[in-house]
Amino acid sequence: MVDAPAQILVIDDDKAMRDACYQTLTRQGYQVEVAANARQGLSTLERTTFDVILLDLVMPDLDGLESLKKIKALDPEVEVIIITGYGTIQSAVECIKAGAFHFLSKPFVPEDLRNLVGRALEKRRLDLENLYLRQELKSKEERATLVYESDSMRRIMDMVTRVAPTDSTVLITGESGTGKGVVAHKLHQLSHRARRPFITVDCGTLVETLFESELFGHVKGSFTGADTNKIGKFEMAHNGTLFFDEISNISLEVQAKLLRAVEERKISKVGSHRVITVDVRIIAATNKDLTRAIKDSTFREDLFYRLNVVLIQMPPLRERKSDIPLLVNHFLEKYNFRVRKNIRGVSPEAMDLLVRHDWPGNVRELENTMERLVVLSHGPYLEPADMVFAGTVLTPSATPGSSASLRDLERDHILETLQRCNGHKSEAARALGIDRKTLREKLRRYNIE
């Protein structure tokens, strides 16, 4: 993908030096602004953001070290290159100790300027990338896999492959646990932004008072507890994808600020008027009916239309029953590996129960159920009795010609196991994956002699 051009500010009172830097850097494709003195440069920095600043060390209004301190107070992340004459190299070294990236000695050739600016930009990129990776390590969310064969999910994936290469904003709707986050990540993986950050904003867990700070960042001292400057999610997602999970949970006040950011791709940190331009692809998800929320005046209609450019509606698991056996086997393999078990499969009777259950919690509920069954089961195959033993209560939908209850299935399974074990209760208990005492209780409950 083609990233947004780097933003560079040149602060120098020598017009010939400003023009030379401007010509050299714009030819490299950078966006360059110039300032004739330190105060003008600081004023420019208050309004917008830059990746690199070229700062003359000796200017009539402010000296280089004082200017550097003011620049770093406004934007600690910006990389500053000091322009210095041979007589002031010691002062330039002092500036590096105070946070400057490096210095450039006069006179210099264009190649020296291009190389040093390139190195500064690479450092800034790596710093932002490390910040993103640290967030990824903190997140316990595991990138799930889409497993399906149903026609409804094939249609969903066809839409995903069509939309992913574009930068269009996508709204994903569906019940909790249907895989909205997985689809959002798939859209990112298949896009030209795939090698850039995928940043998730969990709108359901963020504290309302800190929401704006999380989205846009804040400057030190902007509110109680703001002890340092903070980069927000928009900046972290620059050139990548920003995913708003359960977006219906944000307040109307934050919605108004989010609308401006979505429309203009410009933000300002809390406590600052500086405008930061961001290049992000927006994906949002919700399990709520946003049209009803608009009628209830809890969601802005203009924001809804900005988000609802492409709509993907995730079907509930009960409407794609053909995917359940695939998902069951996928989760069985996953948790066999994770908990070091070797359960070979699921019996037809147990699979029938799993398929006929309505799964109100959708794929997330099915995964949790499979993890519990794998952890607690001892037999080579998962059986209906394992579900009861693991505390899994499945309520199969009524289907023609099938009236067996879970109680009947468990009783029949125990009888079959006893017959296979020639009536030996200890052996049957081991085969069922329960202890002898539990088997005695079940035999008494079912009046089995």
Output the radius of gyration: 30 Å
The order of strands across the largest sheet is: 2-1-3-4-5
Distance between the termini: 72 Å
The helix/strand class is alpha/beta
Task: Provide the CATH architecture of the largest domain.
Answer: 3-Layer(aba) Sandwich
Question: Poorly predicted ranges (pLDDT <50, ≥5 residues)?
Answer: 398-404
- Classify the oligomer: single chain
Question: Brief description of this entry?
Answer:
This protein is of the alpha/beta class and 449 residues long. The chain contains 19 helices and 16 strands. It has three domains: 117 residues, Rossmann fold, CATH 3.40.50; 165 residues, P-loop containing nucleotide triphosphate hydrolases (Rossmann fold); 128 residues, Orthogonal Bundle (Helicase, Ruva Protein, domain 3), CATH 1.10.8.60.
Give a verbal description of the structure.
The chain is of the alpha/beta class and 449 residues long. The model is unreliable at 398-404 (pLDDT under 50). It is elongated. It has a five-stranded parallel β-sheet with strand order 2-1-3-4-5, with helices on both faces. The protein has a five-stranded parallel β-sheet with strand order 7-10-13-6-14. The chain has three domains: 7-123, Response regulator (Rossmann fold, 3-Layer(aba) Sandwich), CATH 3.40.50.2300; 151-315, Rossmann fold (3-Layer(aba) Sandwich); 318-445, Helicase, Ruva Protein, domain 3 (Orthogonal Bundle), CATH 1.10.8. It starts with 6 loop residues before the first strand and ends with a helix. It is 47% helix and 14% strand. The chain is built from 19 helices and 16 strands. The longest helix is centred in the first third of the chain and has 29 residues, at 110-138.
